[in-house]
Model the fold of this input.
Amino acid sequence: MRILVLEDDNQLGPWVTSGLKEEGHVVDLFADGKEALMAAMGQEYDLLILDRMVPGLDGLAVLKSLRASKNTTPALFLTALGEVDARVEGFEAGGDDYLTKPFAFAELSARVNALGRRRDGAGAETGETTTLRYGDLSLDLVARHCERQGQTIELMAKEFKLLEYFMRRPGRLVTRTMLLEQVWDMSFDPTTSVVETHISRLRTKVDKPFDGELIRTRRGEGYVFGK
Amino acid sequence: MSSENEPVKPSFNDLQTRRVNRFVTKQAYRLAKPFRWLLRSSTLRLTLMLSCLFAIGMAVSIFLALTFGREAVLERVDTALTSLASTVTINETLSDNSIAIIRPLDNLGNLPNQFKRTVKRGGGTVNLSNDFNQFDAWRVMITNDSQGTPILVALPIEDSEDALDLLSGILWTTAGLVLVISLLIGMTAGLLAQRRLVRINGALSRLATGDLSARTGVDKASDDLDDLARQLDVTAAELERLVTQTRHLSASIAHDLRTPLARLRAQLEMLPEGEERGAALEEASRLSGIFDTIMRVARIEAAQGEDGFEQIKLSEFLTDIEDIFGPVVEDAGKILVLENKSTGYVTADRQMLIQAVANLIQNAIVHGGDEITLFAKTHRSIEELGVFDNGNGVPSDQYDEIIKPMVRLDSARQTDGSGLGLALVRAVADRHRAQLQLSEGEPHGLRATMKFST
Done:
């Protein structure tokens, strides 16, 4: 994807840029709102990553101008504000997603990919397939049946949802925040070990009785399924 | 041809009458409604009270004045009669003079019967239905003439009676007029005050619901109510300024803190993988987690209105909570019990409610006993939602303390936590106009209840 990044912080900007480049995207970094707006007007991007507070013209104003000129490129706001009001403002200005600083790169990456898929008119995630497979593990989404090495595994509703989420993202880092938002529909950290508890139960059922660990913890970052 | 058992159906007329009655009652109520404020107006109440006092005072003084006035008149007439009698001598030629009646007792002649009756009583006042000698009110006295012959002397007192009647008429009319005028003045004053009070009340209730731009708009200052209104406006303006300032401040604090945190995170993520990197990332997460919680408490406390509120059935909410947190409690080696006695709904922000209950459960996991009970119940129009445990509880004199942000009792210092748990619960409760109540569990432990009035 061709991505425009508007971020004035001289550490975060290059960090985001190099991370996205490593994932194979083409990235243009701008530290000034006006320049970013000119660039976005001048050429087609697949995604805009805009910081809310930058000199010149802030991200919100940039997107408003773009949307006013019928530009529909998906946009993700980065913000240090994080207030719900600011979030709502972002969506009202035509933003498609919102990420609060500080964030893990994995999270930015996940959201970037999700927006990219949306642009491709996808739904690739919910796709035709009704059974997810990874190695000797299979998850039938319709029959709500899970088995590994031919052995049926009984899963609770939340565990099922959790495993489905992992199996759709093999080899990718999944953070606590992503799980809370996607599996539990919580936009806040409940300060209890909800995620840890459910992961550990899922492991007991899916990993422990078999050879080959599927769900691994990346300390301080999150979890990775597979590989 | 109707059998006797058939229930008596109300006739059309009955129904019509009932309907009309109901209509009239309703209309009367509707018409009276705009006037009900009148009784609530303190100015008018004061006027009514003073008017009552005035009316009673006037009535008493008019009554006394008339009574004493009449007695004084009669006394004077009696003196005149005595002196008259002492100067005359009864003989055949004597007849009534132009005013007085003088008769020997044994020959009352053509005097009306009332006079004779008064003679038997030994004298007094005679009120006639028909004039006698042009007068209908007479004072009669039985006495002796200069010769000692018993005689009747009488003088008309109609003029003084008339004068007294006139006096009482004037007094009553004046009193009535004063009453009506003072009531009218009271009503006008009440109306004028009420208008401003309505504005003041309106502004206050808008302020209470979070509209900090509410003002009374009173700019002249002619009396104490205007002063009050103006003072209210000044206070509201200051409040609005402070709240706006705080919002900007918290936004810039958030920005100033989150940006370096983001840099820290970025730098840590760039380190080579390993145990230390993980530990550092974990610590960074915890740091931003605490910061997020502080910001969240501040945000909930500052938020207003009911955006994002929905009707939540507490019994279902409780089951959802059990699904989410039951395993967490279990893994901590404790039991989560459900006590679901609620039949009602609360209007609330679901996310916030989950957050609050999560904090209560977390508190109970860390500080409480091995059995944690999640309860909801309906008590009249109050919906209760809360958590209690069977642990050691908290001394009741420290309840106020532990609700404050960052306060952790000494006994809790060794355990993990930010000290923001109950502050957040209270913020959520306040946001929903619910009451957070801490109490002693049965038989021991801490019981935290959020009481929603529905």
Chain B touches chain A through 52 residues (CB under 8 Å). The mean pLDDT of chain B is 82. Residues 369 and 391 of chain B are 3 Å apart (CA to CA). The radius of gyration of chain B is 45 Å.
